[in-house]
Amino acid sequence: DDYATKLTEGINQMDEMPVQPIPAEFSDEAVDAAVGRWKKQFDTEEGGAQGAPKFPLPNNYLFLLHYAQTEDDAEVKKQVLLTLDKMAFGGIYDQVGGGFARYSTDDVWKTPHFEKMLYDNGKLLSLYAEAFKATNNPLYKQVIDETAKFIQRELTAKNGAFYSALDADSEGEEGKFYVWSMDEIKALSGEDFELIKTYYNVNRKGLWEHNNYILLKDQSDSVIGEKFKLSKEELGGKIEAFKQKAMEARGKRIRPGLDDKTLTSWNAMTAKGLVDAYIATRNEEHLTLAKNNLDFILKQQVKKDGSLFHSYKNERSSINGYLEDYAHLIDALIRYYEATFEVSYLNKANTLTEYVVNNFDRNPAGFFYFKSKADKQLVAQKAEITDNVIPASNSVFATCLFKLGQLYENEEFNSITKSMAASVEPNFSRYPAGYSQWMSLMLYLSEPYYEIAIVGEECEEKRNALLQHYLPKALICGGIDPGELPILQNRKVEGKTLIYVCQSGACKLPVLDIHEALELID
Length: 522
Prior knowledge:
Largest sheet: 4 strands, mixed
Radius of gyration: 24 Å
Strand content: 5-15%
Strand order of the largest sheet: 14-13-15-16
Shape: globular
Helix content: 40-55%
C-alpha cells in the first residue's frame, strides 16, 4: 500500500511545474537562449539534428522558420531550408507517389521506415507551404501538390474522412511496395534509362537490400537538365512520364496494410495542412479536400452537447474527445476561416474553445488535463505539455486561445494563454526541441503581433494577395460586411475596401493597398 501510494504521487507529480507570475511584458530572451543552444545540435551537412535516426519533426522547423524571419537569423533560415531540401530529395520522401515516410533510419534521409503516417504528412504540408511562401522555391510546391495527392489517393474515404496510416510492410517485407529492381527501372524508363538512372541515383548510392533501389535525388533539375541538354519543360515531361508508368506498375503490387480508423485530432491537423497548401499554391483541390474533411468532423464527430468524439471507424464514432482533438480542430477551423472568411467555421472554433475552458480541469500551473471532466479519471491526471512529433495539446490550445482572444476581444482567453506561457517558459533552454510550439507562442506575446482586418466588396481579392506573403506573426480576418466579429465593428466604409493593421484591437489608419499594409507590419 505504501509503495502504491508513493508511485501514484510520483506519477501525478511528473508534469508538475511551478506556478510562475505573469510578467507585465513578455520577453524573447528565453527563446533566444534556447535557439542558441539548439544550433549546436544542427546537422549542417544533411539537415535536421545530428545523428540517426532522423525524424521530420515539422513543428520544430515551422518554429525555426518563424524565428528566422522574426529575428532576421540567416543561420537558422539556412538550416531550415537545407533540411527541407534534403528531405524532399531523400528516400524518406516517396519520389514516385508523393508523401513522407515516418522517419529515416540513417543520417542522410536515404532509408526510411516505410510506414506513412497521416499526422506527419498533414504537418509537413503546413511546413512546406510556409517555406514556399517564404522562398518561392518550386521544389516545395511540387512536394505540397504531390503530398496532397497522396493523401487524397491513399488515405481519404468517400465521406471526407482521413485514414490514419499505411503499414511499412507488404507481403511480409518492409518497403517492398516502394522499391525497384534495376530491370524494372529499365523497363519503365525505356530510352530514358540513363536519365532516370542519374536522376534517381540508381547506383551504389540508391542501392538497398536484395538488389533493390530506393529512389532519391542529389542534384537539382537545372543541373540534371544541363547535363543531359534538356530544357526545364523537356526534363519535367520525361520525369513525369516515368512517374506515371511507375505508379501504374506499383498499382499492380500487393498494397501495404491500411490503418483505416479516423482520429479527430490527426484529421484536423491534416485539414489545416491542406488549407495551408491551398493558401500557398492557390490549388482549389487542396481547399476542397480540407473543407470536406472539416465538414465530416463537424457533422459526425460533434455530439449534441457540443463535445467531440475522438475516433471513427466502420460508420461508428466512439471515445470521448481528448484535449488534442479540440486543440487541433480549433486550430484548423481558425485557419480555414483565414483562407475563406466563412465566419461560421470561426464561430464553431470559438464555441469549442469555450467548451474546453468549461469542461476540462487545469492543474495548478494552468495547463489543461488531457481528459475532460466527462471521462472516468485514472490513477493520475495528466497534462500534455512537451511538444513532440505532434505538438502538445496544451501548446496548440494556448495558441488558439491567443488568436481567438484577439478576434473576439476575450480577456479570459488572453489571460489563460499568458498564464500557460509564463509557466512553461523556464523549460525552453532545457530541451528546445520539446517546446517549439510554445516558443512560437512566446514570439507572438513578446514581439509585435498583428491582426489584419479587411472589410469591403474586394475583401477576398485583397485577402488572397496578403496570404501569398509569409506572415508568421499576423492573423487575417474580414468580410464584405463586419458581421458580428468584434474586431471588425465600425470598419465598413461604403464604396471602399479598407485594410486595417491592428495590435490587440488598436488599429492604425486604414489603407487601400496591400503593399501599404505590408509596410505597416514591422
